[in-house]
What we know:
The structure is a single chain. About 55% of the residues are buried. The strands form 4 sheets. The protein has an 8-stranded antiparallel sheet, covered by helices on one side. Helices cover about 35% and strands about 25% of the residues. The chain is of the alpha/beta class. It starts with a strand and ends in an 18-residue tail after the last helix. The chain has 19 helices and 25 strands. Bound molecules: fructose -6-phosphate. Fructose -6-phosphate binds near residues 301, 303, 348 and 605. Fructose -6-phosphate binds near residues 400, 485, 489 and 605.
Amino acid sequence: MCGIVGYIGDGNAKDIIIDGLKRLEYRGYDSAGIAVHKDGNLVVRKHIGRISNLEDMIQGENLDSPVGIGHTRWATHGAPSDINAHPHSSRDGRIAVVHNGIIENYVKLKQWLRENHNIEFKSETDTEVIAQLIGVFYDGDLLDAVYKAVDMMEGAYAIGVIAADEPDKIVAVRRDAPLIVGLGNNCNFIASDIPALLKHVRKIYLIENNETVVITKNSAKILNEERKEVKRDVFNVTWDADAAEKEGYDHFMLKEIHEQPKGIYETLMRRLDENDSIKLDGITLTKEELDKINKIYIVACGTAYHAGLVGKYAIEKFAKIPVEVDVASEFRYRDPFVDENTLFIAVSQSGETLDTLAALREAKSKGARILSVVNVVGSSVARESDDVFYTWAGPEIAVASTKAYTTQLICMYLIALYMAVLKGSITEDYYKFVMDELKALPEKLEELLKKEKDIEEIAKSQYKRECVFFIGRGSDVGVSYEGSLKLKEISYINSFAIAAGELKHGTIALIEQGTLVIALATQDKLYDKMLSNIQEVKARGAYVIGLAKESNKEIEAQANDVIYIPDCADEVTPILAVVPLQILAYYIAKLRGCDIDKPKNLAKSVTVE
Ligand code: F6R
């Protein structure tokens, strides 16, 4: 997804911005560009493809300047191209704009600009409309022109703007797309994401919706819609810059897979007191409030949705409250029954996924209480929720989610157990049993990660497959969906997941000689049923990789290969079972020569519909 970086100060804006953009590469992009002040004018350079293409383009050119804005674009309006890349300029080239998000009324605005100001557009983008609008309103006061333009714009966006005649400032606006200000010494920054600035600053302002920012070398002002200055507490970023680097792993994805024991430990142990009672920081739901809740929706997209499927299982089992899980893009348009007795749980790594945010707003407008499970602190989903429960996974850079998923699962268990205790629907002994199982997970996960080499060997024998099925029962169904998504998104293999009991209702027709089936059989109570399902597919020629608990060895007689997870209670297997599937997907994608951390067509943070 698009990234914004802007800089003003004593340093060289071009170098600082390009470095910042590189740190946002993980968001996914198709072109990059930069605009800097130079000798009373604005110089704009942009190029389709990687940031390195832009660097090659400007190599040898003197673009040294104390102020500039830069952008990585992920196409929405208009195909990826040099012309459509940002920054975009006003007709006279004296205003430059970078923009994340979408201007929904851009067609109307384009027409207005054509009819009233004879503007000819160079690109197909909605962003150029912003630059032209600001251009026609500009009469020496950039801030005023930006306010006037924003007044006419509808949609969800963050913009950064510079003007040739005001080299002492950058103006930025946030409406429903992330924007932060970085506070440095003799310099200030704007950016769409914290990692872009980590090398330079630790102190930031989190900009709220409908706020406008003016930064100069020595000041950073936040203004509201009435142009009044608002005060904001400084947010101190505690992440280590190294946490956003690969630390010796070939890919961020592998590094993040290995960070899961730590992520799980942090997410769990920070919420337990010395008696293992759960303290849910950020959640104020009381027993009286919970007693009124008669329906829970868990709503999310992609991997986060798969975490929701396991959340349903945990909440229904422990807290005995009915739960419906929905993909956000469906929930928001299907007029679901929601009222003040509904609890809406949004799950999102980035906290910026537009569909999840829109579904959240829909539920909120109907009176639901909003609880979110989010990784990115201060993100939009977090800010718009009544209660926020953070996953402590740390920054997730690889597009394919791994550690965010397993920490989301921990949050789901904690929320389910917390509710169960409030409602009195769990015995002390059973609570203790599940809690002990959860606490044992980081160590078991470390043990499991030692099997990486064995899983790599399996990948070597399977990476040429073109069609893979994942099957499972009970809580293994959600994990099958997640294993399948991991494989397809990074290796581009056509992969499909289905509840094993559903196979014979149609899908089994596709199983033939050599089809690869990955059979999850981690649930003791459903183990025999899964062995039968394995027999069914084997009888039709499938090659089966089984996944089972260490002690359940009967599977060896059925499956061609078996990956074992450490013994644990059925209740917590999803957290262990997904990890071998992540590793398998990783090595298969690596052997196929895929761009693992930045798979084609995908973005880390999907802030468009
Ligand atoms: C897949 C993946 C996506 C995200 C989805 C939601 O590996 O990462 O499916 O889970 O786009 O993103 P968040 O969690 O940021 O709302």
